[in-house]
Amino acid sequence: MLYFAYGSNLNHFQMKRRCKDSIFLKKINLKDFVLTFRSKYRAADIEYKKGSIVPGGLFEISKSDEKKLDVYEDFPILYKKFYFTYQKNKIMTYTMVKKTLFRFPTERYLNIVKQGYVDCNLDDKFLRNALKDNKG
Which domain holds residue 38? Predict the structure, then answer.
């Protein structure tokens, strides 16, 4: 199945450790969404915002990988699955169930995400904007 990563799972080392069968395919953009950070975990989330984009990594994952991600993402308590179509392919990602207020991520978590942006060759301006726009 196809999986869209936009947070810490962009980090190739972490993703391989978590999902041994995963294969990074390419970077893609999820249209009409914006990146944010929230919950007591200060983790990445996406929310609908017309005209915005969230860059991310497209991965091929196995059924056992999906089960491991479900556990890691605390599905269906913290995150729920969200499906979208990209170039006629059905793609799965996760989005938080409760849309709490912005919480600045921990330095450790943010460094994992930053390395993921490098690993997937993503423009980190989207990450910087997510952190800047929400300082309130």
Answer: 2-132
